[in-house]
């Protein structure tokens, strides 16, 4: 069997795919690549079927040694890529041979590079997915981030785009100084005063160092709750509600001053008031926002969220057409 | 039913989730309704529905919007609210009653809670002392007696895999209530027994948490390796509608049970029971008495 040797795991590199469905009800979040667009394009570039498992790195990418000839591609955050120390372009199909070493350096912009390898990372699927859920050590490679010495099994590669095939600039994500997150107001938004909700939407929030695949904790403002006699069972703090399910992407406001946006490895429920949900497409953008980065929320309705999905799908089809053999 | 529920509230959790709040307050009635509607939804087998998650007084549905428009799902859920939400008086639930040992005021959760006093309502007391005081108990011992006197219904699973939210099967005037931490802790020992709002939980794994810490269970509720016989079918032990009786144990029994868990021999004491919600609502003490008799017979 073919495999990939991990020379260095980078800061936190995990195996991810589209995610794990059907177990949310026992408290298992979907996991999966947090930037689904960059993930999907990485697979296109190496000729993998949709949904094949790739590596998702954070800030500092891994160093990987190949043991046979493969196509490989790096997408997502903007970072230097080298093969045997020589610069190699991102968003491009690259050909490597046995003994070659691919390194993904510290990101210059964005937060998460994706590395797809022809044939996919062939760790055994767990409950229908190869995604890593680190909190409980589920899936991926031994349920954890990669470390040097790991040997990752690889699948059988199919036909791949020719080396040098690239995704046009306009189909790559940008990394703005302040990231706009479209947001469907609702859930328990009634807990905030009208002024607090307005202030939430007009504040430019700063991403704290507590920002990972579980969620992003933000700072920059303080939100006041509507005074009420707490409903039975919720607990007496004004931020408390009777524990309920949390949508992925939802924003909770414990204490009223530190909004937390939940991501793919999030807790699935709890008792802090939630005030709305970042639309699924913009989770891709949040995933590429880093500690110290700034975000702001723009209210939209569900139809706008559906339209955004449609646009992402169209972009993905353009990328597919761009890398398809002529 | 004694509690009249308000009209359900339908909310979009972005494009991939629909959240339905049956009541802002907790009650057995709201939970039973959530279980009934989500059960009916499961049987409908609608294409595009990915996850159906009953919660305490609400429920959450995760969907694939490429196959099912969230607004269409809401229409379907409104229909189910009317056809599946009302339960006949003889409605019975087949479930399990389970003995769950807990070591209260243990050294591990005590050490953790002392580390996070700056996030707590009452930095000068332990979580147990604080909870006893605000619930009008004379001391911690009286609080523990009230928790162990009557069993709890598992009203929701979630937060992390296998965590049971448990609601005590006693009238509202005897319910224990505590707030969640002012800011969640970043650490909680695995198997910690916590209390928040009107809910008791056992934390499946080490990690963040916002509930008051009262003790620790020697037996797991989550076993990824599925080494223990009770986990042969699932990595999570508790199921919605299970009835859990939290029993106070001493350090000796805790250590003994830990060793049984470690060698893979531990089994929960479980009995199959039939729960008639109407009976429970009418006379909880009588129903609880019968359940405990079945459990320890």
Describe the structure.
The complex is a heterodimer of chains A (326) and B (297). Chain A has 326 residues and is an alpha+beta fold. Chain A is 15% helix and 32% strand. Chain A contains four helices and 18 strands. In chain A, the strands form three sheets. In chain A, strands 1, 2, 3, 4, 5, 6, 7, 8 and 9 form a nine-stranded antiparallel β-sheet that branches. In chain A, a hairpin with a 2-residue loop joins strand 5 and strand 6 (86-88). The longest helix of chain A has 22 residues, at 302-323. Chain A is elongated, with a radius of gyration of 20 Å. The relative contact order of chain A is 0.18. The mean pLDDT of chain A is 96. Chain B is of the alpha+beta class and 297 residues long. In chain B, the strands form two sheets. Chain B has a seven-stranded mixed β-barrel, surrounded by five helices. In chain B, strand 1 (9-13) and strand 2 form a beta hairpin. The longest helix of chain B has 17 residues, at 28-44. Classes of the chains: A alpha+beta (326), B alpha+beta (297).
* Number of distinct beta strands of chain A: 18
Q: Between the first and last Cα atoms of chain B, what is the distance in angstroms? A: 31 Å
Report the end-to-end length of chain A measured between terminal Cα atoms: 32 Å
- The radius of gyration computed from the alpha-carbon positions of chain B, rounded to a whole number of angstroms, is 19 Å
Class of secondary structure makeup of chain B: alpha+beta
Major sheet details of chain B:
7 strands, mixed, barrel
Helicity range of chain A: 10-25%
Give me the side-by-side strand order of the main sheet of chain B: 5-10-8-9-7-6-11
Residues in β-strands, percent of chain B: 15-25%
